[in-house]
Specification:
five-stranded parallel beta sheet; about 45% helix; two-stranded antiparallel sheet; Rossmann fold; 11 strands; Helicase, Ruva Protein, domain 3; 15 helices; globular; alpha/beta
């Protein structure tokens, strides 16, 4: 059974990161949870997959976040004719120098928007695998390191849309989080119309940090304390995804590590030097659901991976970490 939310752990974001969120929300209206989740992924050094229908602000969110973080930004528009070299870069022969020189592709940026990633072929989708996992690309046998920080934020349309290619499980597993923005409310849509009346507000977004500052924050996140009881809670949740009767394929150990890192980043975002179970619960669905494969009969019955993870959260006992006991 889940623990009730406690006021003592409802702090707002730490001041520097609150300013980043404030800048992004100049452009993105009514999506605080998604903005915070994307920032958590950056702090964790992880990647994000945003799946939703066209036009709800996926691309704008990523552009605004990159600008607020003061990081270089590159957009890769995935199309059916895109080649792997269009992503990673290519070696070009220079007749004056008498040798090949590497021309980097758009993946050589701090924040990379992989737009509509499921509209290209699986071969080109796979071109991101090494970059996302190894933080490097290999072209003609030569390995080139990517800049730090390096985060891929990919968007995709729901797989029911015409002209889409489902991402292979190996690629989906590389994403720390999977998010869905959803449609705005009527009030939020009125605000959007007003803000866009005189031009796009993305031009007004100011840089709060810089790449070195983001890397420094990532290093601090790694030092956030995780109690042994919370670690056991994370493992118990992931283990349960492998035993649930509706699940065909449970989350891998990469899922455990993803939830661990994301929980550290959420605690850090909210100004704490330690993780509480609330952090784990808040991120379990976006961290684990896309790693869970359901059995055919569960899919026919209309169950979703998100609902299964919610069910697991209700079934696994919530620990009382020592930090809370000392309080």
């Amino acid at each position: 059974m889940r623990a009730e939310a406690e006021g003592a752990f409802a702090e707002g974001p730490r001041p520097d990161l609150a300013r980043v969120i404030e800048q992004v929300e100049r452009v993105v209206v009514g999506k605080r949870a998604a903005v915070e989740a994307a920032l958590i992924a950056v702090l964790s050094g992880g990647h994000v997959l945003i799946e939703d229908v066209p036009g709800v602000g996926k691309t704008v969110l990523i552009r605004a976040l990159a600008k607020a973080l003061g990081c270089s930004f590159a957009r890769i528009q995935f199309t059916p004719d895109l080649l792997p070299s269009d992503v990673t870069g290519v070696s070009v022969y220079d007749p004056r120098e008498g040798r090949f020189s590497f021309r980097p592709g758009p993946v050589m940026a701090h924040i990379v928007l992989a737009d509509e990633i499921n509209r290209t072929s699986p071969k080109t989708q796979a071109a991101l695998l090494e970059a996302m996992e190894e933080r490097s690309v290999t072209v003609d046998g030569v390995t080139h390191d990517l800049p730090r920080p390096f985060v891929v934020l990919a968007t995709q349309n729901p797989v029911e849309f015409e002209g889409t290619y489902p991402l292979p499980e190996a690629q989906v597993d590389r994403f720390l989080l999977k998010l869905c923005l959803g449609y705005p409310t009527a009030e939020e849509e009125m605000v959007i119309l007003t803000r866009l009346q005189g031009g796009h507000p993305i031009a007004d977004v100011e840089s709060v940090l810089d790449p070195a500052g983001v890397c420094a924050l990532q290093e601090e996140v790694c030092r956030v304390h995780v109690d042994e009881a919370v670690k056991a809670y994370i493992v118990a949740l992931v283990q349960e995804t492998r035993r649930h009767p509706a699940v065909r394929l449970g989350a891998s150990p990469r899922g455990s590590l993803a939830l661990f890192r994301a929980a550290q980043a959420r605690a850090f975002l909210h100004g704490r030097a330690y993780v509480v179970p609330d952090d784990v619960q808040a991120l379990a669905v976006p961290t684990l659901a896309h790693r869970v494969g359901l059995k055919p009969d569960a899919q026919v019955a209309g169950r979703t991976a998100e609902a299964v993870v919610e069910d697991i959260l209700d079934r696994v006992r919530v620990p009382v970490p020592s930090a809370r006991r000392r309080g």
